[in-house]
User: Fold these one by one.
Assistant:
Number 1:
Amino acid sequence: MATSAIGINAIAADSDNEIVYSYADENNNIINITQSDLDAEHWNKEALGDTAPAIYENFPMNMTGYSNDVAELYLDFEYMKNLKDMDSVHLEITKLSDDSLVYDEDLQQESFYSPQIFAGESYKVTLTETVDGNSKSYSKGVTANESEIDMPEYVTNPDTDDESIIMVGDIEDLKSGKISTGNSISVDTNVAQYAHIKANEFKEYYSNLPSNKVYRIYTISNGDVYSGYMSTEDDIKFYDLTIDSCDWDSFYSPTLLSIPSYTTTDIKNNAVDARYTEYCYKLSETSNNSKCKIFKVAMPDSFLNEKIRLFFE
C-alpha cells in the first residue's frame, strides 16, 4: 500500500468489497481501499473519517498539540486503529534533553492527552502494537515551541478611538481557578476572572504590568477569534504553544550547508539566537561528555539569512 497520498476522497461503502477510499499516490496511480482492506489492517474507519489510512501508515495515531488557558501544553492523541483488535498497544514518550520517560503505558482508550510537555524541549514518541503475538513499533520526533502569533492591529498598535475589547488573564490567577475533570481542564470564572480592556486603553494597561509574567489573551475582530499568550519578559510578546513533528528517521538527519571561513568553533561562539521559536536554538553542549545534539542555529547579524543545521558527536 502507498505510504503517501494526494487527492484523498472517501466513498461510502455498503459491503466489505465496495471501495471505502480512493486516492492517487505520489506517482498518480489510483489506489482503492475496501472495507476488507481496512479490517485486515485493523483500521478504525470512524477515527479515519475522510482520510485514507495511507496518511497514518508510518505512525497510526493522529497527534496534535493542545494548550489550555493556564499555558500548559499537551499532546492530543487519537489512535487510528481498533484497539480491541490488538493484544496490546504501548506508548512511550521520552524527553530527549535528559532521556527521561514522560509516559510509559499501554493504551486503555483511543483518544487521550499526554502528560504536560514544555516549550523548548524535544521528545521521542514511540508506539508499539502487538497483535497475534507479533509486535511492530513506530516513532516520531516532536518539538514543543513558543510560536509568535499575529494579533489585530488594535492590539499591537491601538488607535485612540478604538474601543474593541481585549480580554487578559494573569496565568497565575487562572491557575488558582483551574478545574480538572477527566481529560478536560477548565477555569472557574468565579475564582479567576479575565480583565476586559478597551483597545485604546491597552497600551497603558500593559505598560503597567509587572515584568516576567505571562497572561492569557483573547479578542474578536471581524468575527475571528484571536487567542494566545502575552509575555512581559523583556518586551511584550504574543505567542502560542505549538508542536512540530516529523518521522524519527528525519528528526536527526543533518542538512549540511557550506559556510565559507566558518569553523564549528566559530559557530559555537557566535550563535546568538537562543529563542525556541522557529527551531532557532543557541548551540550548546547537552551532556557531560560534551556531545551535542542537532540544533538549527541563527547566525550573527552578518549571517541573518543563513540558518544551518549541524550534527556533532
Number 2:
Amino acid sequence: MNKKIEKIAITLTLLIISCKNSDIKHVINRFEQKAVVMNLDSLYKLEPSNSITVKRNILKTWKYIVFIESSECSVCNLNNLCEWVKMDDFFLKNKERLTFIIILASNQQNLKLISDSINDVIKDYVYVDENNYFRINNPTLPKQTFLHSFLLDSDNNVILVGNIMNNNNVRILFEKILYENGIIS
C-alpha cells in the first residue's frame, strides 16, 4: 500500500473518532510509526471443540486485531466477543488474504472460564496472552482501549485504527481500504 493511502486512512480514522484532543492524534501517529510485532507462537491458541486445525501462514496476510487487556472487565469483554460472531462469514470468505485475531491478555486462572464462555466460532480467532507479551513487544500500542482494534497490512504496519463493530464509519473505511488493496472483491 502506498504511503499516501496510509496517511489518508490514518487521517480519516482520526476524523471518524472525532479526535479533538491532540493527545489522541499523537498516540495514533506514534502507534502507526512502527510495525506491530505479531509473535503468535508466544500465545496460547484457543481451539474450538469440534475443529480440525488447518495450518496456514496467517502472519503473511492482512490482519484485523482486537486486543483486550486483562485490566478490562472480563465479563464485559466475554459478552462483547460474542458480537464478533456476526463477522464470521466476512472473515471466512476472505481468509486467504485477511485474518481476524483476538488477543486476550489473561492469566492461567481465567483460561478455563474464558474457554468455557466463548462460542466455538469465536474460539477459532482467540489467542490468550498469559504473560502480556503482546503489550511488551508493542510499546507504542495505545493505552486507550478504544484504540485496541486495528487493521494491519501483511507487513504488520498499522493501516486503520478503530472498531468496525462499534463504528459504522470505521467499518465503511475498513472495507474500502481492503477493496482498494485487492484484499476483498
Number 3:
Amino acid sequence: MSKKRIFFIETLLTHGVGHHLDNLIESTLFFKDNHKFDINWLLNENFEKKNLYIPKKVKIYNLFSSKKSSNLRLLFRNFIFFFKYLFIFTKQRKIFYFFNAIIKNYFTVPFFFNLKAYNFFLSQNFTNDDVIIIQSCRPKEVELINFLSFFFNEKPKIILRILYPPKKNGLKNFYYFVDELKKKGFNVKIFTEVETIKKYIMERSDYDIKNFTQIYDFHKRYNNSSFTIGFLGESRVDKGFNKLPDLIRSVLTKIQNINIIIQFSEKIYPETEKYKKEIIELSKFNRGIKIINGYLDYFEYRKLLKEINIMPILYDADKLNFVGSGLFYSCITHEIPIIIPKSASLIKNDLKYKGFLEANTIEEYTDSIYKISKSYEFYLNECKKLSSYYKDKIYSDPLIKEVIN
C-alpha cells in the first residue's frame, strides 16, 4: 500500500527568516514521524536550503516565481503567455481544458503559473487520497490551484491554512476561487489561525471554517536559580522592539544578576535602527546582555528558547488580537512564563493556567518580571499544565484530523 502524500505549498518561501519555514518544518515532522506520510514541499524557485535544517526524506521542488511587475508589464505578460500556452496546449491536445481555465480566470494567467509548475502537477497523477495544503494561504495561490484543477483527473483534498484576512475586492478574489473549486467538486477545507480572521471570512461567505492549532515541539523545563529574559523575532515596532532599551534599563536597575538575550533580525527596519544602537551601547557596560544578529535556524531558535526562562511579550495588543503570535505559542510549548499586554484578549483564550502576568507600561513589565522571578516555581508549574493542555489541543486539532482522514 502506497503512503499518503501531502503537498505543502509555500510560493514565497525563499529562505528561513520568519516563522514560515519553522511552521513548515513542525508540520512536516508531525505528519512524517507520527503518520509516515510522504511529504513534498512546493516552494519558490529561489529557495536555497544551504545551511538550513530540512527534515529527512522531504522532497523539495522549486517551482514558483514571485517577480513583481508593473500593471503594463503584467498585461504584456498575459498577452504573450496566452499565445505561448495556446500553442503548447493545442499540441498536447488539452486546448479545451486551457480555454475553460483561462475563461474562468477572466482571460488572465495566474501570477504563480508557469510550465514548470504545470508539468509538475500533471506528473503527480493525483488521487482522491492526496492532500494539498496551502500553508500560508494567499488568494493568488488559490487562483493557481483553481487554474490547475481544470487539468486534474482526480480531486485531491485541498486545505487552506489562512494566516491573514482575505479581502473581497474585484472579480478575482479568494472567495471567487474557493467557490469555483467547490463547484468542480473539490473537497476544500478552510482553517484560520485566530478567531478574528475566522469571523472576518464568515462575514463575507457561508463557508464552514474552523481554527487550527499551530504545531510546535515541546521542551520540559526545570527550575534554576538564574533568570534570563529575552526578545526573539523581527526588530519591528509592532513587536515592541522600540520598548527594549527602556525595559533593559529598568530591569537592570531593579533586578540583580539577570541575563538578557536580544535578537536583531536580519532584515533592517529603519524605524528601529536607533533602538539597536541604544541596546548595543547598553551591552558594552553589561555583560549580561547577549545580542544575537540575524537569522536563527530551527535548532538555534529552540536552543535560545531553552535559555530564556521569562519572556516579556511587548507586541502591540491590536496585532496580537488580530493575527496572534508564533512566539507566544513557542513559550507555551517551552514552558516559559510570559508577560503579555493587558488588552491582548485573543491570546488569553489559550491561557488556561496562571503561568503569565499582564502589563502595559515599562514599570509594570519590570515589576512582573521581578514577581515571576520571586515565585518562579509556582509560575513554572502553571506553565507545565498549560503546555500539557496545548499538546492535547494539537492532537485533537481539526486540521490534523482532516489530513489524516
Number 4:
Amino acid sequence: MKITRKLTNIHIWLALLNVVSLIFILQIVFEVIPVWECDYTDEKIDRINSFVLDLSIGVITSTFFYYLLVYYGEWKRSKGIRRLNQWRLNTMAANMQIVIGYYVNKYNIQCKDSKFLTAEPEAFKQIGNLTRDKIEYWYRWANSDSAMNVCGSSERGFVCNYIDMVKHHADSIMESTVFSLEETELMDLVSRIDRCELVKHIVMLNRNPKLDVYLGDYGHALMLFYQYYCELSSYVFMDDIIPKESGCKLGVAFVYP
C-alpha cells in the first residue's frame, strides 16, 4: 500500500535524524567523537555548537513526544477499531451462515461440515422464490447448550432479518478507514457482499412490506451469496451450526413476521 510505504519512509527519516542528532550531542557535550579542525573563532564555534546542540535536543525531544502522544495514541485507536471490525466481520459471517444453514437443511444440500463450506454452489440454484410460509426451524451453535428457536416465523421475515444484519455490519465495516487502508482485498469482498443481488433485493423487500415476490432469480442470487460467504470464511472465526437437532433445549421463540 502507498500510504503504508509513506509511513515507513517517515519512520526511517526520523530514525536517521535522531541518530545524527545523537552523534552531534555526543560530539559537542561529551567529546566522545573526535572533532575536526577549522579556522573559525572560538566565539563563532561556540555559537554553532550551541545552535546544533539545541537543534539536536529539539529533534530527539520532538520525536519522543510524537511517538508517545501521536503514534502510540493512533496505534491504540487503530487497534481498537480493528478489534471492533473483526467482531463485525465475525457477526456478519455468522448471519450469512445462519441463512445458508437454513437452506442447506431445507433442501438437503450435501455438505460435509457444519460451517457449510463444502456444499456445491450450483446446488443453491434449485431454491425457489422467497415465501411468506411459516417455518419450523431451530439451530444450535456448537458452543451453546440451547437452540435458537425461530419456529412460527415466515421464511421471508426470517431471511430478511438476517440479511438486513449482514447489510448493517457490511456498511459499518466499509465506513472504517482502518480496514480500508490496510485490507484492500477484504474491503473489496465486503463491498461485493454489500452490493450483491440478494442483499439489494432484500433491502428493497424490507422497504416495501407489501411486495410479495422476490424480483429476480432467487436461486442464482443465493449461489453468489454462498460463494461470497466461502470467501469471507478465510478472514473470520466461525463456529459450527447444528440445524434442527432433535432433543436439544429450545429457547424462547423469536418470531419474524
